[in-house]
Amino acid sequence: MSPRSTKLPLALAIADAIRKVPRGRVSTYGAIAAAAGYPRNSRHVARVLNEVPGLPWQRILGSGGRISLPRERGLEQRFLLETEGVRFRGRKVNLAAFEHVFRPTPKKAPVKPVRRKES
DNA sequence: ACTGTGACACTGG
DNA sequence: ACCAGTGCCACAG
User: A109 CA, C2 C1': separation in Å?
Assistant: First the structure.
């Protein structure tokens, strides 16, 4: 398809975001794209998952926590996730409980203690 | 430049 | 809850 696209910043950023999702947690295409800094490129997440080897591909789900892969691949994904401890509610994962929360923003926000005014 | 193609997301019915 | 339609963006031909 587009083997070389994996070197573009878009693809690199997306791959990075995917790598940050820890075992036992999941994320979605949209969330990954957003975390990578490209909030409108959720469709490209799929491309990266397909072309970059070694990514925890099973941890990426469609919106709402639904599996987007057809049949066998889908079953395998579900199996792998359950093996890591991710539980399903019907056909979807309870994102409220298992979705990975990315660090707010690599911008700044060095956590400064709030200083209260004195009286 | 134009068209078709994605492991998508979101909104309405 | 399940479509269908629409928006989206980079890449291949």
Answer: 43
Interval A25-62: pLDDT, tens? 999 999 999 999 999 999 999 989 988 889 999 999 99
pTM across the whole model = 0.83
Distance from CA(A63) to C1'(B10), angstroms, rounded: 10
- Across the range A75-84, mean pLDDT stands at 95
Q: Nucleotides on strand B with an atom closer than 7 A to protein CB? A: 6-10
Of residues A92 and A110, the one with the higher pLDDT is A92
- The C-alpha atoms of residue A34 and residue A102 are separated, in whole angstroms, by 10
DSSP assignment letter at A54? T
If you measure CA to C1', which residue is closest to nucleotide B6? A43
Q: Which of A74, A111, A109, A9 is nearest to A17 (CA)?
A: A9
Those residues whose beta carbons lie under 7 A from strand B are: A 28-30, 42-47, 49-50, 57-58, 60, 62-63, 68-69, 73, 77
Would you say residue A4 has pLDDT above 50? Answer: no
DSSP state letter for A76:
H
